Amino acid sequence: MSEASVPDSSENPYGTPTTSGPEPIRSYQKVVNRIVRTLLRVPGVAGVVGTRLMILHVVGRKSGTVYDVPLAYTKHGDTLLIGTALRPWVKNLRAGDPVRASFGGKPRAFDPVVHTDEADVLRLYEIVARDNPQNAKFNGIGFAADGTPSKADIYQTWQQGGVVVELTPR
User: Fold this and answer.
1) Which of 133, 149, 148, 115 is nearest to 72 (CA)?
2) Averaged over 18-28, what is the pLDDT?
């Protein structure tokens, strides 16, 4: 990791990040996504795979095309949280327009909220990171010696376009 890729701690109110930020999408990600989508549609297998993964069925704003996006999620009370970068599929989520998600069975409807402001992203991303360290690593969030997610890393992820999508069942 080069020093130039990590923001100076004076730019980050939580100190120096431990990572250079979210990992780029790998060249093989489309293949992995295709496999995950298939596994989430297979009875029996879907129940095991679907404990942390789902397919979010997102409708394109302009095209009307349905995109099936496999995602990791965190249960938080009655809602589901998805920590991610502001990817094109996120821009298709609109308040007031329900979205459907599949967990290996019949799709269920949810009301989406895309959290982009600093306070919400820091608070909710910490919940996601604690629940799913692999998702945290992918999104550039390291952990302190006591196991708590690094606030400096979460702040950096937010600075680099990190958002949290909250899905509330209808």
Assistant:
1) 133
2) 79
